[in-house]
């Protein structure tokens, strides 16, 4: 994943003398240097030259060109290339992306794999398998040369060539048709009109003139292919993953004993997150048992965090409820999701309750997560009122997670709120008896005020048509009762004013 | 100290333990200079006059109840028991002003296993923002409910935790009391039966008020125990002011 040029910071004295010459010949650089010929620049030239040279001439780039990807959408292409890049990581640590092509540096792994042929066979097998899995054509062209652009051009031409030395690049590329170059229509037409069919025709032309006719990017493209100009690349960086495990020296049955070990693992997780400036919202702990499937504890967070203390608290809560089928022999933690970390800055002055809303919100979220971890997702509800005439529908019990955001609350129309409503509502209305001509619940009931007619849902077949009264039980409690308008005209208790 | 005794002996009927004392009676009697002098000195403790002990509680919203509670209102933190023979005797009306002030502070109210459905329109009518109300469902096991209560009491974001639990051992109550102290939170336990040895600092009871008269609105609220108070006092309060 390191850029080859940054790698070049390593001083390699043994290679330095023979490599000094070529870099000066680079036209662009030579010009730069002549412009500022200060003594310090001259001194730094001495130290920089050999290093840059070394990477350029000593690397071998293996290019892989997949023309079949051209038809795919760009997002899909990227996905395919990402996965192929992951495969290519098995032979090289430097993999870079190009349109429909991947390029990796293989010089450093030549010795390990004992030759480019082995590397090629290994890659071919992996890539063909993968392409077949995607139902894509399993053919691709490849090439290897000391420059990235050179390899790319060779691969695009379908030559499957191998060029070991930079000196040979000029002749190898010379055979290629000009079609392999990245050119626009106008440039292509002009080249054709000039009678240029192959790259070797271009080699014969002076670069100043080419620069004028085709622009500097065209010349740069050729220079890069010949190893005369630097080749910046977009390298593949594998997404960060974290898995850590610990094998216990002896079996553990008591989960409390496991907590210090889990704490250690969490410390590693948080360290990992802190170094990459990430946070996590999903973790999985798996506890392995002898001869049994491992127990998995999944920790989900509403707001991504990297606080060891908070994660530990959640884990403890999960462990409280967990029963394990067998003693634990190993524990493993895996970070399932990584999120960006958003830091909150502390206020300079310690503010009182009104100012520290964000802090207390975070506290509350932590508390809610703990509550949900223990009680289960749907045991914690928030209430919300809805603009409905039917009393049962006017209050909603929502899961905490599906709670509408602040401000988006439905506000009841004013005329509906004018009549008093009870704090408690019975799950099902309870039928009231009539005893000696008086309504009776636990004790006789006397009506205080009413009626309030509620008629709704006539369109749905189960129409609601009730006369609501506020009544007082002889024990002192206030009841919300109603009488059906239709049918048997029974009395029901529907709520308490509590 | 002698002044107080003299004053109390002559003016205040505190010897009678069972007499229900109207708070207004104190103010009516104490208009003399001596009374003013005593009321003005916060360092003096007067056994039966709760109103005279400064203002460090949160007003209950019912002046008659403020008068018989130490600190003239609900405590800022701790555990409180409200005993009613049935659910729905006005125990929530008693706490509505408190809930409103807690929501205004930006804190949350947690209802742990309430016996019936909490009805949102009524909360809105009472001026309580439903966004700051959370309910733990009734079918939660007792152990989990107590666990939630302890955690909620320890959390500073919860201003009030209401729980419906009938029988709780003293040990559990002590633990909840500690949790409430750490979180600066007020916990309210609703019960059907009073237990004499409960360690909760405040125990209130709403009595059955037998009356045939429909227009009779007042319920009798008795402070069975309150830390700083040495006998039970009661007041008649119209709990259904809003209703």
How would you describe the overall organization of this protein?
The complex is a heterodimer of chains A (498) and B (243). With 498 residues, chain A is α+β, with helices and mostly antiparallel strands. Chain A folds into four domains: 12-55, no CATH class; 61-235, no CATH class; 243-343 and 357-372, Dna Ligase, domain 1, CATH 3.30.1490; 422-496, no CATH class. Helix content of chain A is 37%, strand content 26%. Chain A has a five-stranded antiparallel sheet with strand order 4-1-3-2-5, with helices on both faces. In chain A, helix 15 (308-321) runs parallel beside helix 16 (357-375). Chain A is elongated and about 120 Å long. In chain B, helix 7 (142-154) packs parallel to helix 8 (170-183). Chain B has an eight-stranded mixed sheet, with helices on both faces. Residues 1-30 of chain B have low confidence and may be disordered. Chain B has one domain: Rossmann fold (3-Layer(aba) Sandwich), CATH 3.40.50.300. Chain B contains eight helices and nine strands. Chain B is α/β, with parallel strands linked by helices. Chain B has helices spanning 2-11, 23-29, 33-40, 63-68, 91-104, 120-125, 142-154, 170-183, and strands at 78-83, 108-112, 117-118, 133-136, 158-164, 186-191, 202-206, 218-226, 233-238. At the A-B interface, helix 16, strand 10, strand 11, strand 12 and strand 15 of A face helix 5, strand 3, helix 6, strand 4 and helix 7 of B. Strand 12 of chain A pairs antiparallel with strand 3 of chain B, so a sheet runs across the interface. Chain A: InterPro entries: DNA/RNA_pol_sf, SulA_CellDiv_inhibitor. Chain A: This is UmuC domain-containing protein. Chain A: Residues 1-20, 27-49 are annotated as: Disordered. Chain A: It comes from SAR86 cluster bacterium. Chain A: Keywords: DNA damage.
């Amino acid at each position: 994943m390191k850029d080859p040029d940054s790698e070049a910071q390593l001083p390699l004295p043994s290679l330095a003398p023979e490599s000094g010459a070529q870099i000066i010949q680079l036209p662009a650089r030579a010009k730069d240097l002549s412009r500022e010929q200060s003594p310090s620049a001259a001194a730094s030239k001495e130290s920089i030259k050999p290093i840059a040279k070394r990477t350029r001439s000593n690397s071998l780039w293996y290019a892989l060109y997949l023309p079949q990807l051209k038809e795919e959408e760009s997002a899909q292409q990227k996905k395919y290339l990402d996965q192929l890049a992951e495969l290519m990581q098995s032979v090289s640590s430097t993999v870079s992306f190009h349109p429909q092509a991947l390029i990796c540096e293989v010089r450093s792994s030549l010795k390990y794999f004992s030759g480019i042929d082995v590397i090629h066979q290994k890659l071919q097998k992996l890539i063909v398998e993968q392409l077949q899995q995607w139902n894509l054509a399993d053919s691709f062209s490849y090439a290897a040369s000391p420059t990235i652009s050179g390899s790319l051009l060779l691969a695009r031409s379908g030559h499957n060539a191998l060029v070991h030395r930079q000196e040979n690049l000029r002749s190898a590329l010379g055979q290629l048709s000009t079609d392999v170059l990245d050119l626009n229509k106008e440039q292509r037409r002009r080249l054709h009109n000039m009678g240029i069919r192959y790259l070797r025709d271009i080699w014969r032309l002076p670069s100043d003139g080419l620069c004028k006719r085709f622009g500097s990017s065209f010349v740069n493209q050729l220079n890069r292919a010949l190893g005369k100009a630097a080749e910046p690349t977009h390298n593949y960086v594998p997404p960060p993953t974290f898995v850590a495990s610990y094998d216990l020296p002896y079996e553990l049955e008591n989960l409390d004993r496991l907590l210090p070990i889990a704490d250690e693992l969490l410390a590693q997780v948080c360290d990992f997150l802190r170094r990459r400036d990430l946070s996590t919202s999903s973790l999985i702990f798996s506890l392995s048992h002898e001869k049994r499937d491992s127990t998995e504890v999944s920790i989900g967070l509403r707001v991504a965090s990297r606080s060891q203390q908070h994660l530990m608290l959640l884990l403890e809560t999960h462990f409280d409820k967990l029963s394990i089928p067998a003693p634990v022999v190993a524990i493993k933690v895996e970070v399932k999701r990584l999120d960006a970390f958003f830091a909150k800055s502390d206020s300079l002055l310690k503010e009182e309750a009104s100012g520290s809303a964000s802090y207390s919100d975070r506290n509350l979220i932590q508390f809610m997560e703990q509550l949900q971890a223990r009680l289960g997702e749907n045991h914690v509800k928030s209430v919300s009122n809805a603009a409905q005439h039917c009393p049962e529908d006017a209050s909603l019990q929502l899961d905490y997670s599906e709670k509408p955001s602040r401000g988006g609350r439905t506000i009841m129309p004013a005329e509906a709120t004018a009549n008093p409503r009870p704090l408690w509502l019975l799950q099902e209305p309870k039928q009231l008896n009539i005893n000696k001509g008086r309504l009776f619940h636990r004790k006789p009931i006397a009506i205080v005020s009413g009626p309030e007619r509620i008629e709704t849902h006539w369109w749905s077949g189960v129409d609601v048509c009730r006369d609501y009264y506020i009544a007082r039980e002889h024990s002192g409690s206030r009841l919300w009762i109603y009488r059906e308008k239709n049918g048997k005209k029974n009395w029901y208790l529907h709520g308490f004013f509590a | 100290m002698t002044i107080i005794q003299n004053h109390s002996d002559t003016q205040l009927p505190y010897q009678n333990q069972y007499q229900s004392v109207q708070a207004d009676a104190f103010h009516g009697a104490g208009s003399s200079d001596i009374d003013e002098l005593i009321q003005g000195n916060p360092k003096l403790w007067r056994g039966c006059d709760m109103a005279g002990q400064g203002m460090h509680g949160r007003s209950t919203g019912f002046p008659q109840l403020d008068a018989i509670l130490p600190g003239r209102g609900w405590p800022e933190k701790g555990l409180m028991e409200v005993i009613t023979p049935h659910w729905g005797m006005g125990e929530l009306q008693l706490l509505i002003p408190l809930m409103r002030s807690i929501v205004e502070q930006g804190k949350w109210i947690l209802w742990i296993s309430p016996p019936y459905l909490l009805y949102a329109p009524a909360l809105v009518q009472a001026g309580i923002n439903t966004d700051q109300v959370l309910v733990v469902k009734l079918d939660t096991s007792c152990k989990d409910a107590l666990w939630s209560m302890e955690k909620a009491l320890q959390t500073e974001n919860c201003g009030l935790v209401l729980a419906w639990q009938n029988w709780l051992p003293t040990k559990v109550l002590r633990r909840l009391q500690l949790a409430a102290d750490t979180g600066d939170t007020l916990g309210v336990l609703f019960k059907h039966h009073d237990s004499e040895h409960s360690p909760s600092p405040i125990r209130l009871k709403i009595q059955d008020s037998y009356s045939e008269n429909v227009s009779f609105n007042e319920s009798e609220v008795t402070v069975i125990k309150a830390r700083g108070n040495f006998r039970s006092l009661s007041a008649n309060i119209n709990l259904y002011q809003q209703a």
